[in-house]
Design goal:
The chain is an alpha/beta fold. About 15% of the residues lie in helices and about 30% in strands. The chain contains 15 helices and 77 strands. The protein has a domain at about 755-810. Pathway: Protein modification; protein ubiquitination. Its main location: nucleus. GO terms for molecular function: zinc ion binding.
């Protein structure tokens, strides 16, 4: 018989046939196995050589009998393994104590895998190193040689729910001899009762099958785990149609439920009597562990998981809470708990709902494709949410309402079908270091007296704005990186008053910060740059305070006040914009003080279309056009500003512009220090206008002015120039020590183009030549009339600003005074006007 089994085993075994050489003496075996259940007597008989016979008080080697030699040495491995395959686990452990060879063969992983799968059904070892901890491993990757045996030892003493098997097990005691530590039941209810009555360790294995309408109330620290091949939770299904599927009550502090599908599937899915029923109901003063479970509820009036009451503090991890017809996870009434690494998706209402002082810790959950909001905190709900991935929910990814105050850290909130984060109705919360992106509406909405803290987040690539604060919203918006959004990076409207500081707001497809409809707020120490429209817009009765910001490199205006936009702009750096650094129009009346406005590719400050404003103590320099433009019935006040080193004029006032210019220093500008034109009438008092590369003050085109107590000195062309027909009111001005380059050139008989080129417009008498067919756009200086156009039909036009077209070489006859001609366009009598913003209002 042994030979037949040996031959059959040799065909099927992966082991190479081998024989042992004779050993000189018997090999001692291990003192004791780790397998629980091996009896003491067996261990004494087979495991301790010290208890063998002694001679003269000393241990002696005994002669090896032929049978022992054959079994221990000569019998092929395949035959031994075949014999061992008929043994159960305890006998296998006893055989391992015989000798070293048997110990090695009895620990063969294939033997233990067969035994293991017969008892537990797992196709991968389920490790249980400590209470409340289970995980499956790949045997090939495990560091120990026999994970099947190790897991068997960890799981050995347990009760098994295996319908139909209990009768077979207890009616064949000889077949299952040694498995007295295993109990078998047909139902979960019986197993729970048997475990508790027997004062058992409380480990229950629920084997493959569907268990329906069992009464599972857990009020002791039992451990219940699914046992099935393949993906365990798919094969072990526990469902209820009438009552909550699992109810954890006081006394279940250390209970564990894992690796199974838990369903609540009522026949009448919307009936009101199911209102209190759930897949999992965790009540006061209990803290079970729910691990690797699939949780489904088709009831429309109750959540899938309900955690409620003081002291309710479960650990729910690696679970899938999806496709439910109400809320996925509901935490309320001071409940807490730890919720980690769960998949929560496609639920009809909120994926997670925290209410009434619930305060969970929620980490690394994947919350997505919800048919409502992703996470909803409401009515003083709290919680700590960390490293969650929240995306593609139908409403907001995260909603905070009615005094809720969650903390959300390092989460990704993205691709929402509406907004990313929605804080309203006095909601609060701390949102720190999150990534908020690609949402259809604003990344963050704050409204209705809510006051959250938004710090250190990246808010980007939204299909609308970045942060939207409206309807009396507040909040601290600090240290965020806001970029690439389709509308404004931050929008503040309708009496909202946030604090916005230390943010980077850049590369938006719209403006940077948009304050409108009586918006307020303190906006300080931000960097706003490279936005497509204005860096900051202030409009429609808004009154923000902007301090110490860097607003630069925009593709339009730096700061834009229009339609009664007000507020304070102070101590900011505003530079390098395509349009003006600051624009003020249509009734706007901001206070602009102590700013540096420089390096613009257009003007510094443009006030137009009835704009107002108090512009004080600013430094305005190195702009491509005038430092300050005032036009079209605007009437600002400029005091104590330094306007210098402009690549055009200092201040240009035209088209009915007015204004009070007082105690300003205007110097080193390429064109006139102050140009007043076209029916304008400003008042200039106590200004110093000096060291300019053209005129000090030029007044032309029927403009008037009041000049009082000004000092005008050391300007290249001269101090004060008045065009024909201009009348001014002057008092106590000092015009002195100017270089008077125009008068000197005229007296020397030079063409005025020699001193102006086509970049300046010196004021003097200019003429036209009918013989040379000059047009209304041409002008000729007095010396060219005398020299180059001598004997021609000429006409004096007026005393005004121009450059000489004769000297520029744009007429048919060459200029004999200017030397080589410089071809250029027709003369313009005023500096080129600034580019006005055509920015449209976007709500």
């Amino acid at each position: 018989m042994v030979a037949e089994e040996s031959g059959q085993g040799a065909q099927n075994s992966p082991y190479q046939l081998r024989r042992k050489s004779l050993l000189p003496k018997r090999t001692a075996c291990p003192t004791k196995t780790n397998m629980e259940g091996a009896s003491t007597s067996t261990t004494e008989n087979f495991g301790h050589r010290a208890k063998r016979a002694r001679v003269s008080g000393k241990s002696q080697d005994l002669p090896v009998t032929p049978a022992e030699q054959y079994l221990q040495v000569k019998l092929p491995d395949e035959v031994v393994l075949k014999i061992f395959s008929y043994l159960l686990e305890q006998d296998l452990c006893r055989a391992a104590c015989v000798c070293k060879r048997f110990s090695e063969l009895a620990n063969d992983p294939i033997l233990w895998k067969r035994l293991y799968m017969e008892v537990f059904e797992y196709t991968r070892p389920m490790m249980h190193p400590e209470s409340g901890k289970f995980y499956q491993i790949n045997p090939e990757e495990y560091e120990q040689p026999n994970p099947w045996k190790e897991s068997f030892q960890q799981l050995y003493k347990g009760a098994h729910v295996k319908p139909g098997f209990a009768e077979h097990f207890y009616s064949n005691p000889a077949r299952y001899k040694g498995r007295e530590n295993m109990l078998y039941y047909d139902t979960i209810e019986d197993a729970l009762g048997g475990v508790q009555e027997a004062h058992f360790d409380g480990l229950i294995f629920v084997h493959s099958g569907i268990y329906t309408d069992e009464w599972i109330y857990i009020e002791s620290p039992i451990t219940m785990i699914g046992a099935a091949p393949g993906k365990v939770a798919d094969k072990v299904i526990i469902e209820n149609t009438r009552d909550s599927t699992f109810v954890f009550m006081e006394g279940s502090e250390d209970a564990y439920v894992g690796y199974m599908t838990i369903k609540f599937n009522p026949d009448d899915k919307s009936a009101q009597h199911h209102n209190a029923h759930h897949c999992l109901e965790i009540t006061v003063n209990c803290s079970p562990i729910i691990d690797h479970c699939i949780i489904r509820s088709t009831c429309t009036v109750g959540s899938a998981v309900c955690v409620s009451g003081q002291g309710a503090s479960p650990t729910i991890k690696h679970c899938n809470i999806s496709d439910c017809e109400n809320v996925g996870l509901y935490i309320t009434d001071h409940a807490q708990g730890i919720y980690e690494d769960n998949e929560i998706s496609n639920n009809a209402l909120a994926g997670i709902w925290v209410k009434n002082h619930g305060n969970p810790i929620i980490r690394r959950n994947h919350i997505h494709h919800g048919r409502d909001v992703g996470v909803f905190t409401f009515d003083h709900g709290m919680g700590y949410f960390e490293s969650c991935n929240i995306h593609r929910n139908r409403i907001a990814g995260f909603e905070v309402k009615a005094y809720a105050n969650p903390t959300v850290v390092r989460c990704e909130i993205h691709h929402g079908q509406t907004g990313g984060i929605y804080v309203h109705e006095k909601g609060r919360g701390q949102f720190i270091e999150n990534k908020i992106y690609a949402n259809n509406f604003a990344g963050v909405w704050i409204t209705s007296n809510s006051d959250p803290t938004i710090r250190g987040n990246a808010i980007f690539n939204g299909n609308q704005g970045g942060v939207y604060i409206f309807g009396d919203g507040r909040g601290l918006i600090e240290g965020n990186d806001i970029y690439g959004n389709a509308l404004a990076g931050i929008q503040i409207r309708t009496n909202s008053c946030p604090i916005v500081r230390h943010n980077k707001i850049h590369d938006g497809q719209h403006g940077g910060i948009y304050v409108h409809e009586k918006g307020q707020g303190v906006i300080e120490e931000n960097e706003v740059y490279s936005n497509t429209l204005a860096g900051v817009w202030v409009t429609t009765g808004s009154t923000p305070v902007l301090r110490r910001n860097r607003i630069h490199s925009g593709k339009q205006v730096g700061v834009y006040f229009y339609d009664n936009g007000h507020g304070v702009l102070e101590d900011n750096d505003i530079y390098n914009h395509m349009y003006s650094g600051v624009q003020i129009r249509t009734g706007s009346n901001p206070k602009i003080r102590r700013n540096k406005i420089w390096g613009g590719q257009n003007g510094g400050i443009l006030v137009y279309n009835s704009g107002l404003g108090f512009i004080e103590d600013n430094e305005i320099f190195d702009n491509a056009m005038a430092g300050v433009w005032i036009k079209t019935d605007s009437n600002p006040t400029l005091r104590r500003n330094k306007i210098h080193d402009g690549r055009d004029g200092g201040i240009c006032i035209f088209n009915g512009g007015r204004g009070l210019l007082e105690e300003n220093d205007i110097f080193r500008n390429a064109q006139a220090g102050v140009l007043i034109s076209t029916n304008s009438h400003p008042v200039l008092r106590k200004n110093r206008i000096f060291d300019g590369f053209a005129a000090g003050i030029e007044i032309t085109n029927h403009a008037t002015a009041t000049l009082e107590g000004n000092q005008i000195f050391n300007n290249r062309f001269g101090g004060l120039f008045l065009a024909s027909g201009v009348n001014v009111t002057m008092k106590d001005n000092k015009i002195m020590n100017n270089q008077d380059a125009i008068e000197k050139a005229v007296s020397r008989g030079q063409c005025l183009y020699k001193i102006s080129s086509y970049t300046s417009y010196p004021m003097h008498d200019f003429y036209r030549c009918h013989t040379c067919n000059t047009t209304d756009r041409n002008a000729i200086c007095v010396n060219c009339i005398k020299k180059c156009h001598q004997g021609h039909d000429v006409e004096f036009i007026r005393h005004d600003r121009f450059f000489c077209d004769c000297g520029a070489g744009t007429l048919s006859n060459p200029c004999t005074l200017a030397g080589e001609p410089t071809h250029d366009t027709d003369t313009l009598y005023d500096s080129a006007p600034p580019i006005e913003s055509n920015t449209l209002q976007h709500n």
